[in-house]
């Protein structure tokens, strides 16, 4: 799959699908996608070992993956994990837990996704407990 001509929204949606598949393969149960309230939006909600994970996904299209020889893209999607955005995710997570009267432990995580332009392959980095 080539990524040329994809809009930012389409790339973001694809990145969220990749992140959900990555989490699923690593033992997470995906509970919800794109939960939005006036406090903010949560890209993915997952559960693993009785812990709720509220996941912010950041995706970029790149020429090469981090660490590949001749990497042209020095950009790291984690720079978009702004403190204000993370606070919004945490506030929305608190709302989600309270609304459902859940008393599980919970945390805010991030998944960074690099999508290689020439073939659509993905490189994923999971960042647990970013708060």
Secondary structure elements and their pairing?
Blueprint: H1 8-25, E1 29-37, E2 40-48, E3 51-62, H2 83-99, E4 105-116, E5 122-127
Parallel strand pairs: 3-4
Antiparallel strand pairs: 1-2, 2-3, 4-5
Features:
5 strands; 131 residues; single chain; Trna Endonuclease, Chain: A, domain 1
Descriptive notes:
The chain is of the alpha+beta class. It has a single domain (8-127), classed as Trna Endonuclease, Chain: A, domain 1 (3-Layer(aba) Sandwich). Helices cover 27% and strands 37% of the residues. It has a 5-stranded mixed β-sheet with strand order 1-2-3-4-5. The protein is globular, with a radius of gyration of 15 Å. The model has no long low-confidence stretch (mean pLDDT 89).
